[in-house]
């Protein structure tokens, strides 16, 4: 056995994650992913009003704000057999897309770019050459020599001050950093711009939802954002056009800066296209529904096994039984009492902390499985499923991006390179571009429908006596999210969240099969075990969110809890 | 409204105009006169940026995310020009041991001089095992870092009062910072998440005056939490005149009527939301047709739920509306809510669906009844 390394805390993620890896001959041979926080939110939900659940579950995560809110109202509506008005569906779809635009921009620039970009190296760049490089990638007007020079002065002032703040103690000058100084300077400049454009996306979201993070405009049965073109206190055309303008600005940044930057990083780090695939079973759920029932969608969902796109099987509606019947969670290696594998409706979970035991229990995360297999979820899963089923928008962006990577890298690459660490970043940027287009499409659909005189936003829920079970899913920025509820006499009896980061960051199952994070690390190079930058690259490419991933709840006597990690 | 980064934004020494504007807005948020602006400018542009250690415990990172959305100052200016953010797990480049080194170096080098920001609750049950960072519990990290800080800013309802994980039955024994640390100045910026303006205003106040702002009995700055939402809500006139939304989407809802009957907790909640609003687009929850959920109040997950039921002790004026009765109803609540957490909880709507406590449990039937009533 080689060197054992532990990276704890993994920073630039949501939540508390620890990664352990065995390294020998400069390669990772084995890995463990461990969620380090548990809050018991599912437990807290027990006995409460199901209409309140979305406000609670949204607090599972502030990075993934909106996503647990949407999955929650959908699961209660599913349990009650409800439809929601068309306007409510469109407004929710705008929430889905606007949140994702913000989230994906933040993820690439703030949370992961520093794994590939050497900020200090940017000091050596020539600002004119930087502008030259940038002009080969896009026509973004801010890519001027003057701006790059000002950014460089800013970086120099920061370094000279001796107070590097959040940039201190990073892996600057690391052997695995390959970008030329000009590419680094361009990326730093875009990092600063990204801070502004992510904010614009959240502003558009806030106009519809009252505030952000943690929106406050949903309700089981629809949305609360009243629409009335003849009133100043409701959504009217002044408000809606403001949303549209902001989306158009953000869309420009995504298509002219974010997507080209990711394509460039993928091409300049082309040796990395062979690393980080891990689990190549993929799961995505359909989203952006076009009707009141959730039977037609703008983004397809489905499953793919062993990277074989021809094996794709679609998930088709909010009531899809293929999805509903095939999800289980296993706690053989998780800090809960027992070693069972159960369907979410049947789960009961009692915390049982034993400290980190690599052959036993070592995480607060459970291990979700689909038909018994670990599944990778996230933008890559969604893009691959879309590509496999011939979804036009997906094909357009994927083919275009791959041809640009090919020409920059000087080698022809096909969809196979997407099964990799940079592939996850590329899929995320592609998804952002698609959602920018779809946000504008659903804005048009909403305005057209309002123009027809339909102002409905809400169908009131009614809770019958007895037991109802429901599930609701949502293709969140980090992948397939599902909430599962059992309602008894109008109160929550059991509530479970099966979360994207749990799918990805979860531990081994009862058969010892590694989860996607763990599997993706195996085979990664590690140039310096003291500074395992490569571990961060692969883990960050999943966009970890650990608060989401740890959840728990117990059905019978309120003694159950759950933890989620995303 | 364009917030594109221009060259002038990159360095205040190039063009101080936008920088001065940010400081002026901060002064306004703090309720300071314009004479104070030069002092804020000086504090904010000081060559030695004050070190800040930001600890994350049991939380969702929503408070940090809120800060990413702030605009005056924006996050770039905040971390590059105003403070030195030496430890913050969400944004820092370093990880693992190198990250832990940043923390250790800062609290050693700036002993007694750095500002400690805490986001998230501290689990105390079972020795605090429910939240660990770098192999140590949140509890032990807080106990190491807090005594060395100049001051502590608890951001969000989790760090201030325990927040969502402290909701009944509080499975991990979660508490806020001031339940553990007693000998340091602590200011509570509650909210789920709080408006970033209230956090930034507190930071700038501290940098300018070298002390924390004046607070209410719950440790919240008066400049942000001094008034009841109900008292400065733009829909208050509808309350006073008896014009209510009975059901989401009805005619009253389309006219922007008062949301009290569909559960608004504004009458028991102290915050400046209606005044400062969110995300620089002039909104807050009530402006998009949803009631306030009371997120700046301690234990609101228990005392303010069910969220869609009306507060029981606020008198509703009759059809004609009686301003005086609405006012007196408000005063009663105000007096109680400001008194203490315990009392507050007791009079909150607080029908927490406690297991087996029949006095509190609300039968499902009544939920149905109210839903039925509001149907068509």
Describe the structure.
The complex is a heterodimer of chains A (566) and B (376). Chain A has 566 residues and is α+β, with helices and mostly antiparallel strands. Chain A has one domain: Cytochrome-c3 Hydrogenase, chain B. Helices cover 41% and strands 16% of the residues of chain A. Chain A is built from 16 helices and 18 strands. In chain A, the strands form seven sheets. Chain A has a three-stranded antiparallel sheet with strand order 1-2-3. Chain A has a three-stranded antiparallel sheet with strand order 6-9-10, covered by helices on one side. A three-stranded antiparallel sheet of chain A has the order 12-11-13. In chain A, strand 4 and strand 5 form a beta hairpin. In chain A, helix 5 packs across helix 6 and helix 12 packs parallel to helix 15. Chain A starts with a strand and ends with a strand. With 376 residues, chain B is an alpha/beta fold. Helix content of chain B is 37%, strand content 9%. Chain B has 17 helices and nine strands. The interface between A and B is large, with 114 and 109 residues.
Top keywords for this entry?
heterodimer, A: 566 residues, alpha+beta, Cytochrome-c3 Hydrogenase, chain B, three-stranded antiparallel sheet, B: 376 residues, alpha/beta, Rossmann fold, five-stranded parallel sheet, disordered C terminus
Overall body shape of chain B = globular
Class by SSE composition of chain A = alpha+beta
CATH class of chain A: Mainly Alpha
The most extensive interface between chains reads: A-B, 114 and 109 residues
Low-confidence stretches of chain B: 1-15, 320-376
Per CATH, the superfamily of chain A is Cytochrome-c3 Hydrogenase, chain B
CATH-defined architecture of one domain in chain B = 3-Layer(aba) Sandwich
Mean pLDDT of chain B: 78
Give the count of helical stretches of chain B: 17
Q: Report the CATH topology name of chain A.
A: Cytochrome-c3 Hydrogenase, chain B
Tell me the β content of chain B. 5-15%
Largest sheet, strands/sense/barrel of chain B: 5 strands, parallel
Largest sheet strand order of chain B:
2-1-3-7-9
Name of the CATH superfamily of one domain in chain B: NADH:ubiquinone oxidoreductase-like, 20kDa subunit
């Amino acid at each position: 056995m080689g060197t054992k390394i532990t990276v704890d805390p993994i920073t630039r993620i949501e939540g508390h994650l620890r990664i352990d890896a065995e390294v020998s001959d400069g390669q990772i041979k084995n890995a463990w992913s461990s969620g380090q926080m548990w809050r018991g939110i599912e437990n807290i939900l027990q006995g409460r009003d199901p209409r309140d659940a979305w406000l609670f579950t949204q607090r599972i995560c502030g990075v993934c704000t909106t996503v647990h809110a949407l999955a929650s109202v959908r699961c209660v509506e599913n349990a009650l057999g409800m439809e929601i008005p068309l306007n409510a569906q469109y407004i929710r779809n705008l929430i889905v897309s606007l949140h994702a635009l913000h989230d994906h921009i933040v993820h690439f620039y703030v949370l992961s770019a520093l794994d590939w970009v050497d900020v200090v190296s940017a000091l050596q760049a020539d600002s004119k050459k930087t502008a030259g490089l940038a002009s080969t990638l896009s026509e973004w007007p801010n890519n001027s020599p003057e701006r790059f020079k000002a950014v460089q002065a800013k970086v120099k002032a920061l370094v000279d001050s001796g107070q590097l703040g959040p940039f201190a103690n990073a892996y600057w000058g690391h052997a695995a950093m390959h970008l030329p100084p000009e590419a680094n300077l361009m990326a730093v400049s875009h990092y600063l711009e990204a801070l502004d454009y992510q904010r614009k996306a959240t502003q558009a979201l806030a106009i519809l939802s009252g505030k952000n993070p943690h929106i406050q405009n949903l309700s089981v049965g629809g949305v609360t954002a009243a629409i009335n073109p003849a009133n100043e206190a409701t959504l009217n055309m002044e408000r809606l056009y403001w949303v549209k303008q902001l989306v158009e600005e953000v869309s420009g940044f995504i298509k002219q800066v974010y997507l080209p930057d990711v394509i460039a990083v993928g091409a300049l780090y082309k040796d990395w296209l062979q690393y980080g695939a891990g689990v190549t079973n993929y799961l995505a759920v359909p989203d952006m529904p076009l009707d009141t029932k959730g039977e037609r969608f703008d983004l397809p969902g489905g499953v793919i096994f062993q990277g074989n796109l021809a094996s794709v099987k679609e998930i088709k509606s909010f009531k899809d039984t293929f999805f509903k019947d095939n999800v289980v969670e296993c706690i053989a290696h998780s800090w809960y009492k027992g070693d069972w594998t159960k369907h979410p409706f049947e789960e009961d979970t009692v915390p049982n902390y034993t400290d980190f035991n690599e052959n036993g229990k070592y995480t607060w995360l459970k291990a979700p499985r689909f038909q018994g297999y670990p599944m990778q979820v996230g933008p890559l899963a969604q893009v691959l499923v879309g590509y496999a089923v011939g979804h036009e928008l997906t094909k357009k962006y994927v083919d275009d991006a791959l041809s640009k990577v090919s020409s920059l890298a000087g080698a022809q690459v096909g969809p196979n390179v997407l099964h990799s660490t940079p592939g996850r970043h590329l899929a995320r940027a592609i998804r952002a571009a698609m959602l920018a287009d779809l946000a504008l499409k659903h804005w048009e659909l909403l305005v057209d429908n309002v123009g027809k005189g339909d102002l409905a936003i809400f169908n009131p829920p009614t809770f019958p006596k007895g037991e109802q079970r429901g599930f609701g899913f949502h293709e969140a920025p980090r992948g397939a999210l599902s909430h599962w509820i059992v309602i008894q006499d109008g109160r929550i009896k059991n509530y479970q969240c099966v979360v994207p980061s749990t799918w990805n960051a979860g531990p081994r199952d009862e058969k010892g099969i590694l989860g996607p994070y763990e599997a993706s690390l195996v085979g990664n190079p590690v140039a310096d075990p003291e500074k395992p930058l490569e571990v961060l690259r692969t883990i960050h490419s999943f966009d970890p969110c650990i608060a989401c991933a740890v959840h728990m709840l117990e059905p019978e006597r309120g003694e159950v809890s759950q933890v989620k990690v995303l | 409204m364009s917030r594109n980064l221009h060259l002038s934004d990159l360095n205040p020494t190039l063009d101080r105009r936008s920088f001065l504007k940010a400081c002026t807005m901060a002064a306004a948020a703090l309720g300071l006169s314009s004479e104070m602006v030069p002092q804020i400018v000086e504090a904010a542009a000081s060559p030695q940026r004050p070190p800040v250690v930001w600890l994350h415990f049991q939380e969702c990172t929503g408070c940090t995310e809120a800060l990413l959305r702030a605009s005056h100052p924006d996050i770039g200016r905040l971390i590059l020009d105003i403070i030195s953010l030496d430890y913050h797990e969400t944004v820092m480049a370093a990880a693992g041991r190198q990250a832990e080194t940043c923390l250790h170096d800062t609290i050693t080098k700036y002993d007694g001089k750095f500002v400690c920001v805490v986001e998230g609750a501290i689990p105390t049950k079972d020795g605090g095992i429910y939240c660990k960072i770098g192999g140590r519990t949140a509890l032990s990290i807080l106990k190491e870092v807090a005594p060395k800080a100049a001051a502590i800013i608890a951001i969000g309802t989790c760090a201030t009062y325990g927040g969502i994980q402290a909701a009944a039955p509080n499975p991990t024994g979660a508490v806020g910072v001031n339940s553990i640390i007693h000998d340091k100045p602590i200011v509570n910026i509650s909210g789920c998440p709080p408006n970033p303006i209230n956090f930034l205003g507190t930071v700038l106040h501290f940098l300018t005056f070298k002390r924390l702002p004046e607070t209410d009995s719950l440790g919240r700055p008066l400049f942000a939490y001094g008034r009841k939402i109900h008292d400065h809500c733009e829909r208050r006139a509808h309350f006073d005149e008896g014009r209510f939304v009975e059901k989401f989407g009805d005619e009253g809802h389309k006219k922007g009527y008062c949301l009290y009957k569909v559960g608004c907790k504004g009458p028991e909640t102290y915050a400046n939301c209606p005044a400062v609003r969110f995300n620089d687009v002039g909104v807050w929850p009530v402006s998009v047709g949803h009631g306030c959920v009371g997120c700046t109040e301690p234990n609101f997950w228990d005392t303010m739920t069910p969220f869609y039921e009306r507060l029981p002790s606020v008198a509703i004026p009759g059809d004609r509306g009686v301003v005086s009765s609405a006012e007196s109803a408000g005063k009663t609540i105000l007096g109680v809510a400001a008194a203490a957490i315990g009392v507050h909880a007791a009079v909150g709507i607080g029908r927490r669906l406690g297991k087996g406590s029949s006095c509190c449990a609300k039968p499902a039937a009544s939920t149905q009844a109210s839903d039925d009533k509001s149907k068509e």
